[in-house]
Amino acid sequence: MERRTFLRASVIGAGTVAFSGSLWREAALAAPAQLDPAPPYGALQPADANGIQLPAGFTGRVVARSGQTVPGTTHTWHDAPDGGACFADGTGWIYVSNAEVGSGGGGASALRFGSGATITSAYSILSGTNRNCAGGATPWNTWLSCEEVDTGYVWETSPWGGAATRRDAMGRFNHEAAAADPVRQVVYLTEDKTDGGFYCFVPTTWGNLSSGTLQVLKAGTGTSGSFTWGTVPDPDGSPKATRKQVPGMKVFNGGEGCHYADDTVWFTTKGDNRVWQVDLAAGTYALAYDDDLVSPGPAPLTGVDNITGSASGDLYVAEDGGNMEICMITPDDRISVFLRVNGQSSSELCGPAFNPAGNRLYFSSQRGTSGSSSGGITYEVTGPFRT
After folding, report:
1. Could you read off the pLDDT of 90-107 as tens digits, one per residue?
2. What is the reported pTM?
3. What does the alpha-carbon distance between residue 376 and residue 89 come to, in Å, rounded to a whole number?
4. Is 31-382 a domain of CATH 2.120.10.30?
């Protein structure tokens, strides 16, 4: 029996044995997730006034709408809100959100909250860029905003505002999301192409992304196994695209969200509705979720997109399409629907992120009820999240 299988069996078979910290994470998500017969938060309740179905004990509110002034501020919220993250801000916090708008109309904005969750200010932190889809936070409290075009860059900017910096060394390709690994002092990057790669940027100096080495994951064609990293010779991707430069690169079908925690990085691929997990300590990769492997069906999660994690180790995956849901994968390989947004079938959910205390979840519906990028809605959900 493999060690991971043994650990998972031990957790299931010995109800009095408690795993914690890294050992619990090592046991977690060791096989593709299956339906949870008893979801942690119970069944969804009828939709609220905003069309959101939530479990009992949770409430939702709208915090911003595209094209409208953010309440209590003079800032107009951007169109097509996408990837996001939260940052601590004294007694409050900041939620940043990308604008997936092309032709130089993209960028990112921020909502600043006081200790009581009242919005105290809102402002732009990046502008003039293209199709800023997802991204990721850094340990030094900056936001990496990724351009989802073939000649796209990663832009580093501050949640508090100021000048943004283009990080050319991180590669020029169809960027999607980023996740920082403070243990190995690298940043992982996804690529939204049907034949995309999964990248690792190794900065020359941790905390400074101005120079470094871009690598891409190399492995076989299977859904699990060992892997290595290969150096991308020309991160600029011209004349040959970065994903075409390294023989043996593992191909992933439409890379989307990316999340790191406890020696593991998870990322999603929308082309095959999968969530992948990379065990960085063991040097292996495997499936955390595959909609074709859920039995009995139907699979709850389709159109996988952005992904984030909670303090309890639960993963939250937003749908681009599907039933407009955010689904939850627990550390014991169980998946359930956490919330559903009704009446917005021409939109997608994106940007899930928890505030520092872990009791508020932010996310956006990119096109809202109108189906247009100008109809985006950004929400906050409050409730008894597991910690």
Report:
1. 999 999 999 999 999 999
2. 0.92
3. 25
4. yes
